[in-house]
Amino acid sequence: MKKNTGIISLILTVAVTAGLLALAAVGVGENKTGAAKNIPLGLDLAGGVSITYQAKGETPSAEEMNDTIYKLQKRVEGYSTEAQVYPQGDNRINIEIPGVTDANAILEELGKPGSLSFQDMSGNELLSGTDIKTAEAKTYKDNLNNVDYEVALTLTDEGAEKFAEATAANIGSRIAIVYDGETISAPTVQNAITNGNAAITNMESYEAAEQLASTIRIGSLKVELEEIQSKVVGAQLGADAIRTSLLAGIIGFALVVIFMIVMYRLPGVAAGIALTSYVGLTLGLLNAFEITLTLPGIAGIILGIGMAVDANVIIFARIREEIGAGKSVKGSIKTGFQKALSAILDGNITTLIAAIILSLKGSGSVKGFAHTLALSIVVSMFTALVITRLVMNAFYALGLQDAKLYGIQKERKTINFLSKKNICFVISAVLILGGLAVMGVNGSKGKGALNYSLEFQGGTSITIPMNEALSIQEIDETVKPVVSEVIGSNEIQAQKVDGSNDVIVKTRALDLETREALCQALVEKFDVDENQIAIENIGAAISSEMRSDAITAVLLAALFMLLYIWFRFKDIRFATSAVAALLHDVLVVLAFYAVARLSVGSNFIACMLTIVGYSINATIVIFDRIRENLAVAGRKADLQELVNRSITQTLSRSVNTSVTTFITVAVLYVLGVASIREFALPLMVGIVCGAYSSVCITGALWYVMKTKLGKKN
Q1: How does it sit in the membrane (predicted)?
Q2: How far does Cα 341 stand from its chain's mean position?
Q3: Other CB atoms closer than 10 Å to residue 331's CB: what's the count?
Q4: CA atoms 565, 570, 571, 574: torsion sign
Q5: Alpha-helix residue ranges (DSSP H) falling in 27-156
Q6: Per-residue model confidence (pLDDT) at position 645
Q7: Which of 135, 173, 182, 191 is most buried by a 10 A CB count?
Q8: C-alpha distances in angstroms, 502 versus 303, 467, 523?
Q9: DSSP helix, strand, coil percent of the chain (3-state; round to 5)
Q10: What's the pLDDT score for residue 543?
Q11: Torsion of CA 142, 147, 150, 154, to 10 degrees
Q12: Strands 451-452 and 599-600
């Protein structure tokens, strides 16, 4: 790169980065398009619409309610992956959709859940709504290559049999789709449909197809529902949480950049520019793709910053090694990027695989976390491999060519990590087994193996008609302490209802005596009308189906990560030891949750998923170096010395990446509100554990399997 080209490249990079930040800060035009404040926020950060449905007729069974809740959850994820659906009492279902303020519009779009049937022209029912598995609007091209619209139906196994008989008997006739007594569509049967998949074609527009598909989906619920209440609720965490999180993010980011400059000199400056680009691009893409941002989503961005830093650390370490080996600075920059590429790609692709699986198979907060994580991974790879390289080459072209500006890596004395492997294995076993023992003891005492939150086990909802409107901060300072003192627990969620003075407080399940005591305390403290206080039981926001989805998604993600590592490293022992180390980190953090009795809710899921992504990325870096050294040393290599050397060579990466990620989360812990601190604390434990396992466990596991469970080849 010539000097003039370097100047232009640097100016353009800085200008584009500044432009992205300016766009995120103020936006463009009257609607402030692109501004960070327009990023959709979840219920925990911004509030949304709350709708309560009640089952018509007799009280449905638990199985029918669970099936209906799960289907509604899938339905409302079209509005936001962070939408929550949970039971309220025996025959009510509550839906909370973040980021919206018009309850009537949502009700109109969502439709009124009711009875749906497919009837012949004589009015005989051929299928019911429960025979339909899914309904989806699609576009297709007809014989003349014109774009047309349709509703694609997938039937259940039983529904497919019924539909095959019905279509065979009604070829050339219409089958009416009747919803709540009204015919909403009457397509003509062209031929017998026997494969369980059908299409309603020639829709007038995509919007009409989507409306029909939506009505069919909502009508396929087992329980017929009617809307009895809708309201706009405020954020669960409030503006203070957003403000402190933003401040923590800015301070943490600044400390990371300073750390990188101190540790890596001129390359640290390049990393600072690249990381700033990462922030600007991430905010812009969150806006563009309308990804709902919640506390778990913030975790995905934090992990993305960690991985962006990690990629830069790997690159800079390689450049220093090349300079230390006597190469020119220019050649070292080129070779450093080339040698770092495999570790960066393998680490990021492995985590990206996990994010994709979690997005496809997960639901609720798991899906939201996966979207944010996937976006962060792609952006972090781009900034590290493209922006950092561009800036580094520009610096060199500008005449900054002294090796001292880049640092010189001297050959380190190899540390004999494997000599301590048995001690490390014992420490890990004690931590994990100790945590499991604590869980067993807590379970036997009736306290629960873990401290499950309202989202996991449900509880009690109290609607308090205050005499004046309170902000969420005032609720935290005045209402929550009163409730906490009466029920003997700090696990309380509070929201205000927009357009009224009502405050909704959710707690663990309360017995009759505690409810009466709470009502009395509220009357005495706030002079509210006791007769207007509404108290109801609510079910878990994270249903058993959602938990099952999360577990399935994590297991599938682990399987696909194992297969990818096996494919890339050509050795199943790399893959199995990587997954074993990942499991180790998860179990250690689980033990911390059990011992510290931290609340286990959606934040717990986000924390565990973050640790999964962080752990596997750290492991890949060491395995990449072992693979490289094996290729050089050949079959006669001393495996113990080779593993020790590989860990020593990547030690600075393991320490520095852990320090930078820890800094970000630690600042969040120090400055954040209580719920954010409860989220950041186990994440800090996970980062420390990930650094420990990557240095002390992963290489040792591979070595043991290589020497004890297979041939030394």
Answers
A1: Multi-pass membrane protein
A2: 26
A3: 13
A4: negative
A5: 43-46, 62-76, 103-110
A6: 93
A7: 135
A8: 38, 9, 14
A9: 65, 15, 25
A10: 62
A11: 70
A12: parallel
From the number of C-beta atoms within 10 Å of its C-beta (0-12, 13-18, 19+), residue 641 rates as middle
- The runs of H, that is alpha helices, within 597-673 are 602-633, 639-649, 651-671
Q: 183-187, 259-263, 609-613: which range is least confident on average?
A: 609-613
Q: Within a 13 Å sphere around the CA of 204, how many CA atoms are in the beta-carbon half?
A: 4
What six digits make up the tokens of 181? Answer: 């007594």
Given a cut of 90, whether residue 230 has pLDDT beyond it is: no
In which band, very low, low, confident or very high, does the pLDDT at 434 lie, cut at 50, 70 and 90? Answer: very high
Calpha distance 618→349 (Å, rounded)? 13
Residues in contact with 332: Cβ distance below 8 Å, sequence separation at least 6, in sequence order: 319, 320, 322, 323, 406
The residues facing 116 across adjacent strands are 179
- Per-residue confidence band for 713, with pLDDT thresholds at 50, 70 and 90: very low
DSSP label at residue 413: P
pLDDT of the residue at 241? 65
- Cα 548 from Cα 66, distance rounded (Å): 13
Residues 415, 648 contacting (CB under 8 angstroms) = yes
Q: How far apart are CA 240 and CA 494, in angstroms?
A: 14
Residue with tokens 């301070």: 251
Residue 112 pLDDT grade (very low, low, confident, very high; cuts 50, 70, 90): low
Provide the 3-class DSSP secondary structure of residue 400: coil
pLDDT over 60 at 111, yes or no: no
552-572 pLDDT tens trace? 877 888 888 889 989 988 889
Both tokens of 560, joined, read 């696909």
The DSSP bridge partners found for residue 179 are 116, 182
Best CA proximity match to 713, nearest among 632, 637, 627: 637
Going by pLDDT thresholds of 50, 70 and 90, the confidence category of residue 239 is low
At CB < 8 A and 24+ separation, what contacts does 517-524 make? 517/486, 518/462, 518/483, 518/486, 518/487, 521/482, 521/483, 521/485, 521/486, 522/464, 522/482
Does the structure show a pLDDT above 50 at 712? no
Q: Are 640 and 418 in contact (CB under 8 A)?
A: yes
What single DSSP character describes residue 497? B
Residue type, 187: P
In single-letter form, the type of residue at position 532 comes to Q
Rounded Cα distance between 571 and 499, Å, is: 62
Phi and psi based region of residue 364 (left: phi greater than 0; alpha: psi -120 to 50; beta: remaining): left
Q: Which residue has the tokens 């494919």?
A: 567
CA 485 to chain centre: 34
Average pLDDT, the chain: 85
Q: What is the gyration radius of the CA atoms in the chain, in angstroms? A: 29
pLDDT in tens, 679-708: 789 989 998 998 999 999 999 999 999 888
Tokens of 70: 């799960």
